[in-house]
Amino acid sequence: MQTIEEDASSGHGRHGRGPIRVSERVLLWLAVTAYFLMLCYIAYRLPFSEYPKAFPDEDARLSLPQYFYDTGRLPTGAEEAVRYPGWGFSYASYPLMLTTLVAGVLMKVMGLFTSNPDWIVFAARLVSITSASAVVYFAFRTGRVLFGRPLGYLFGLFPMLLPQFIFCGLYFNNDMPALCGASMVLYAWALALRNGWQPSNAVLLGAGMGIVAVTYYNAYSWILLSLVCYACVWHSRVRDWGFLRPARSAFWRITGLIVGVTAIIALPFFIRAAVINHGDFLGFATIRRYGMQYAVPELRPDLRPTPQHLGMSLGEMLTTDHYMGAGTNWLLMVYKSSIGLFGYMAVPVPNVMYWAYGVFIVAGLVGFLLACVRRLHHRGDDDTYAVLDALMFANIVLVMGLAMYYSYATDYQAQGRYVLPMLLSVVYFVVGGWRYWVRTLVSRATPSLQTKAQWVFVAAAALLMLFGDYVAIAKYLLV
């Protein structure tokens, strides 16, 4: 029986990767810094005063940290100044206020140096810019652990160069900080699957779950699945579902550390929401109440023309062109706006990019399925692969399910940012599939030639994505 420890020490298998070298750390930090500066430059080129509708819902989202900047207090949701025009509610009624607090503090700091409103807004955008850069950092580190060099770099390059990811990293929102938390959670999973639960990855997991908990409900699948991953890793180390007995002390120590870190980050926001919303700590009932009271008639929760209110089935919602015109449907628009659809779903990337990414993703998924079939014929006692595969698949199902239910019952939104929390899971399968294709094509070559072929593939994919980004972003900046 080969344990995870033996697999790691032997340097073989998907999770058996040695420590990252110092030169790689320096290069990674340089790449992330360059990416951060690039996002700053693009965000600077799109000042809020000149392009108030460049980003979806940014004006409504910005009203929250703006209120903090003006008053020094977090809004409660009852203030008219933070109410979403037309809809009648405010995002401040949710406990998802971590980004508002951080952005408000950054705006206060920026206000010490300038009163220019565009720079004040830019300070708020730094929340998403920093979060996107952090996602890139953790994605590269995760890819290194899961896939090794050089194909593991593709795990970081894919989100880093995805046009819609770049777009979401430019403006103030909750989507990107939530994905940042998710990337921390995934990296903690990868480390735990390789080395077991240690205080360092336990703190990382707790911090990631805490950030997710107070940023975006659609990303809660990462919290739920972390419970499964946590139990499965303990079981794989002890080889007994009664792991509380042989590892009781370590289990409770690590568990307490994770719960403590998560609670420190998230609990104050939920307590605050429970107080200001009279017990409604999630904010759902309060949002509905304000919507009923202040929304324009056609946007009231009981009158809103959702697919459910129109008598559609879920299948009809996914394929109808009722909401967005002929030639469109929910599935198509979610796909397009996951690849690149800027502004208020108005500025697409070139059509060839939708086809290219589609072929790349589908080929990767097919390759992953073939890799699974091959693995079934050579499977030992180590179920590490199956656990991670199942967690990634479950995350996609949960995120898609939440997005579809929200569009069906609450507010029809065929937007890729609503399924952004599953991005890393999709990338996991795609990179795993292409790992299979590349290794299969050069399986008869020498190890040196195999490594060179992998480097060529990663470099070619990065250059093509980079060229696409240049075309797409230049087009958006010039519109």
From TrEMBL:
<dbReference type="GO" id="GO:0009103">
    <property type="term" value="P:lipopolysaccharide biosynthetic process"/>
</dbReference>
<feature type="transmembrane region" description="Helical">
    <location>
        <begin position="385"/>
        <end position="406"/>
    </location>
</feature>
<feature type="transmembrane region" description="Helical">
    <location>
        <begin position="418"/>
        <end position="437"/>
    </location>
</feature>
<keyword id="KW-0472">Membrane</keyword>
<feature type="transmembrane region" description="Helical">
    <location>
        <begin position="26"/>
        <end position="44"/>
    </location>
</feature>
<feature type="transmembrane region" description="Helical">
    <location>
        <begin position="119"/>
        <end position="140"/>
    </location>
</feature>
<feature type="transmembrane region" description="Helical">
    <location>
        <begin position="89"/>
        <end position="107"/>
    </location>
</feature>
<keyword id="KW-0808">Transferase</keyword>
<dbReference type="InterPro" id="IPR050297">
    <property type="entry name" value="LipidA_mod_glycosyltrf_83"/>
</dbReference>
<dbReference type="GO" id="GO:0005886">
    <property type="term" value="C:plasma membrane"/>
</dbReference>
<feature type="transmembrane region" description="Helical">
    <location>
        <begin position="250"/>
        <end position="271"/>
    </location>
</feature>
<feature type="transmembrane region" description="Helical">
    <location>
        <begin position="179"/>
        <end position="197"/>
    </location>
</feature>
<keyword id="KW-1133">Transmembrane helix</keyword>
<feature type="transmembrane region" description="Helical">
    <location>
        <begin position="152"/>
        <end position="172"/>
    </location>
</feature>
<keyword id="KW-0328">Glycosyltransferase</keyword>
<dbReference type="GO" id="GO:0016763">
    <property type="term" value="F:pentosyltransferase activity"/>
</dbReference>
<keyword id="KW-0812">Transmembrane</keyword>
<keyword id="KW-1003">Cell membrane</keyword>
<feature type="transmembrane region" description="Helical">
    <location>
        <begin position="217"/>
        <end position="238"/>
    </location>
</feature>
<protein>
    <recommendedName>
        <fullName>Glycosyltransferase RgtA/B/C/D-like domain-containing protein</fullName>
    </recommendedName>
</protein>
<feature type="transmembrane region" description="Helical">
    <location>
        <begin position="457"/>
        <end position="478"/>
    </location>
</feature>
<feature type="transmembrane region" description="Helical">
    <location>
        <begin position="354"/>
        <end position="373"/>
    </location>
</feature>
